[in-house]
Design brief:
Blueprint lengths: L1 E5 L3 E5 L3 H14 L6 E4 L3 E5 L2 H9 L13 E6 L6 H8 L3 H10 L2 E6 L6 E4 L14 E4 L3 E5 L2 E4 L4 E3 L2 E5 L20 E6 L2
Parallel strand pairs: 5-13
Antiparallel strand pairs: 1-2, 2-4, 3-4, 6-7, 6-13, 8-11, 9-10, 9-12
Helix pairs in contact: 3-4
């Protein structure tokens, strides 16, 4: 791991892997060192705002191979598996569309980090057979609530935007509401399940 200063009161921790970044985030959340104002996890990084010295000291002695296990919040989303790319995903996986839906709904996902758009969570736990590349040509318009996958992640577009993920289906759940508390449905560490609705 390597630290890089970010302004006067923050530092970015570069990690060797997604698992290491998640472990560092969980360790800091559990210990709540003094002075920490904000933590922003990424795919292989952790931005620490405030309390940097205390966090560095904590992580130097931490066993990141066995991070503290908290009680994650669980979110279940109802999904209509009618996505534009469902047949493509099935063909590339060598299975039927029904099998794709079964695999996607049987897995339990973890919000590794958020980004791209407010409320967008990068969910890990995608079955290996469903790990596929982004589309060669991104769409200029992906509707809000679209459930997609790309690489090792699955996720839900919180609002209409361009995007290159392969689309499995749609949910009517609100992923981001600036007037809600909290405004984002997903937070790092949450567990997520998808439920097939017809």
């Amino acid at each position: 791991m390597r630290w890089r200063r970010c302004g006067e009161d923050a530092a970015l921790l570069d990690c060797d892997s997604l698992d290491q970044a998640r472990a560092a985030h969980a360790t800091v959340l559990a210990a709540r060192p003094p002075g920490v104002v904000d933590l922003v996890p990424g795919a292989r990084s952790l931005l620490v705002v405030g309390g940097v010295a205390a966090v560095r000291a904590l992580l130097e002695d931490a066993d990141l191979a066995h991070p503290p296990a908290g009680e994650p919040r669980e979110v279940t989303l109802d999904v209509r598996y009618d996505g534009e790319d469902l047949a493509l995903i099935a063909a590339d996986a060598g299975i039927s569309p029904e099998a794709v839906v079964a695999m996607h709904t049987e897995a339990v996902y973890t919000v590794a980090f958020t980004g791209f758009a407010p409320g967008f969570g990068y969910l890990t736990g995608l079955p290996p057979q469903l790990r596929q590349p982004r589309l060669e040509s991104p769409r200029t318009r992906v509707p809000a609530g679209s459930v997609g996958l790309a690489g090792e992640f699955t996720g839900v577009y919180p609002r209409e935007s361009p995007g290159g993920w392969r689309l499995l289906g749609h949910t009517s759940a609100t992923l981001f509401d600036p007037h809600a508390d909290p405004p984002a449905l997903f937070a790092p560490g949450d567990r997520v399940r998808f439920r097939n609705v017809r």
